[in-house]
Specification:
With 160 residues, the chain is α+β, with helices and mostly antiparallel strands. The chain is built from 5 helices and 7 strands.
Length: 160
């Protein structure tokens, strides 16, 4: 059995009046992500991690922000599409470990819903998706609540 690891990273600005969507879950917040799609940093980081593990480039190659098809698109579409590409290459997801970096909102109350949503997208049991959150101790653009970012690591295994 062959295993492959991928790392993904994403960041988006925050703005007033936009929705905050994390892992496909709407989170109550006074600010939300700004971007071409729904700007879901967790889903974007996982998409890039999947692409990296499978040797398929990056999210910008597959879903360019210059393409009007992706305007306001739910990022779960990206994960599902890339998961199909991964399966075509003979791999499946073993697990995903994701870290959210932001000062607010606190996600403890939403952790289970986010993990369940991501597990559904990745077609794995929810105990195979781990979500951590941390702050930057009020340093930089994240500390000033101007944006948020996420890192994801996924492990793929060959299914053949």
């Amino acid at each position: 059995m062959e295993v492959r690891t991928g790392l993904g990273w994403d960041t988006h600005r925050l703005g007033w009046g936009a929705e905050l969507i994390l892992g496909g879950v709407r989170i109550p917040s006074d600010r939300g992500q700004l971007g071409h799609s729904d700007a879901d940093v967790l889903s974007h980081a996982i998409t890039d991690a999947l692409l990296g593990a499978a040797g398929l480039g990056d999210i910008g190659q597959h879903f360019p922000d210059s393409d009007p098809r992706w305007k306001n698109a739910p990022s779960g579409q990206f994960v599902r599409h890339v998961l199909g590409l991964v399966a075509e290459r003979g791999y499946g997801v073993v697990n995903a470990d994701v870290t959210l970096l932001c000062e607010a909102p606190r996600i403890a109350a939403h952790r289970t819903a986010i993990c369940t949503s991501l597990a559904t997208l990745l077609e794995v049991p929810s105990d195979r998706v781990n979500l951590k959150a941390t702050t930057t101790e009020r340093l930089g653009y994240l500390g000033r609540r101007e944006g948020l970012c996420a890192e994801a690591v996924v492990l793929l295994e060959s299914r053949s």
